[in-house]
Design brief:
Blueprint: E1 11-17, H1 20-30, E2 34-39, E3 49-53, E4 59-65, E5 78-82, H2 89-97, E6 101-103, H3 107-112, E7 113-117, E8 123-127
Parallel strand pairs: 1-4, 5-8
Antiparallel strand pairs: 2-3, 3-4, 6-7, 7-8
InterPro entries: Glyas_Bleomycin-R_OHBP_Dase, VOC_core, YycE-like_C, YycE-like_N
Pfam family, one: YycE-like_N
Protein name: VOC family protein
Length: 134
């Protein structure tokens, strides 16, 4: 069995999306993630999907076109990016222009960052904290 503590595994976060084009605008135009992969359904058991991330990151966000059920994110469905410094208000405005909505993520996150809901209602938190002082 591999030692997961010493390895650097790649993390995949998969979510359904009602509108891949709207989600792409938010994550790519707003947050500046790259499109790492895109595919279109060719058959009955396939889905349109979009993989987003930064090429050198050890994670990616996979968005899958949702026919049913409709995505129902809760306030706890967070993707947190630890910036280790202030949140750039220009970035927040760009995320809002790209379809995001500034929201409260509760007292802790409101103190330590800025939260936005993406077009599907999932929350992105831009945290002023660093990962080491989380």
């Amino acid at each position: 069995m591999p030692n997961l503590r010493s390895a650097v595994p790649h993390l995949r976060i998969a979510r359904p999306s009602r509108d891949l084009a709207a989600a792409e605008r938010f994550w790519v135009d707003g947050l500046t993630l790259d499109v790492l992969w895109r595919s279109t359904a060719d058959g009955p058991d396939e889905h349109d999907l979009l993989m987003l991330g930064w090429p050198d990151a050890h994670w990616h966000l996979e968005l899958v076109a949702a026919d049913a059920p409709t995505p129902t994110p809760t306030e706890e469905d967070l993707l947190v990016l630890y910036l280790d410094g202030p949140v750039d208000e220009d970035l927040v405005r760009e995320l809002e222009r790209a379809g995001g909505t500034r929201v409260s993520a509760g007292p802790y996150w409101d103190r330590w960052g800025v939260a936005l809901a993406d077009p599907d209602g999932y929350r992105l938190v831009l945290s002023t904290r660093g990962w080491s002082n989380r």
